[in-house]
Amino acid sequence: MLTPTMNIQPCSHDLLPILSIINAAAEAYRGVIPPDCWHDPYMSLAELEQEVAAGVAFWGLEEDGVLRGVMGIQPVRDVDLIRHAYVTPGLQRRGVGGALIKHLRQRSQRRMLVGTWAAAGWAIDFYQRHGFVLVPATETPELLRTYWAIPDRQIHTSVVLTHPGTSAG
Ligand SMILES: CC(C)(COP(=O)(O)OP(=O)(O)OC[C@H]1O[C@@H](n2cnc3c(N)ncnc32)[C@H](O)[C@@H]1OP(=O)(O)O)[C@@H](O)C(=O)NCCC(=O)NCCS
């Protein structure tokens, strides 16, 4: 839940604070996701720039003016993807991610999809708490190929969750 000292806004064009949160929070994957999928750092600045160029709009939650968490939204064809959800380690599990996902849900009327590592049970749990439902494994590879641009190896080690949109059509 948002406290009076917190606010959510589009992230500025300075990608470094976003990158720093992503790479710090992605430490959670170390030793959890398949070793060949792990990179150190998890994301490079060039990769992040590419994601922004591909249409990922990052929103940030600031507390007392300090960025605490980021979450991206990317419209692709008929859906909105949630991309790159990360909260500063040490500040997780106190509602920052929840406030960001609620905010992005409110901004979208379309079906939303989110992909995450199959091994990241905590992230799956987080999305399920926010109304997302796991897509059957048989449908996952096709969805990942249709809406994401990710390597084949990641396709076989990921899950997709879906949230129905609120628009009529
Ligand atoms: C996933 C993440 C973005 C959620 O943000 P958050 O601010 O921690 O989430 P909230 O406080 O709103 O919600 C917490 C809930 O998420 C789940 N969760 C988040 N982190 C968890 C963890 N380390 N262990 C178990 N459950 C966790 C639980 O359901 C938790 O509820 P609980 O604390 O009552 O058990 C954040 O934990 C994070 O950055 N994790 C590491 C990176 C990651 O997995 N990113 C997801 C990319 S798809």
What does this entry show, briefly?
The chain is of the alpha+beta class and 169 residues long.
Could you walk me through the main structural features you see in this protein, from its secondary elements to its overall organization?
- This protein has helices spanning 16-25, 45-53, 96-107, 121-129, 140-147, 152-155, and strands at 6-10, 57-63, 66-76, 79-87, 111-117, 133-134, 158-163.
- The chain has 169 residues and is of the alpha+beta class.
- The chain has one domain: 3-Layer(aba) Sandwich (Aminopeptidase), CATH 3.40.630.30.
- A seven-stranded mixed β-sheet has the order 1-2-3-4-5-7-6, sandwiched between helices.
- α3 (96-107) links the parallel β4 and β5 (111-117).
- The N and C termini lie far apart (31 Å).
- The relative contact order is 0.16.
- The mean pLDDT is 95.
- The structure holds coenzyme A.
- The site of coenzyme A has 21 residues, from β4, α3 and α4.
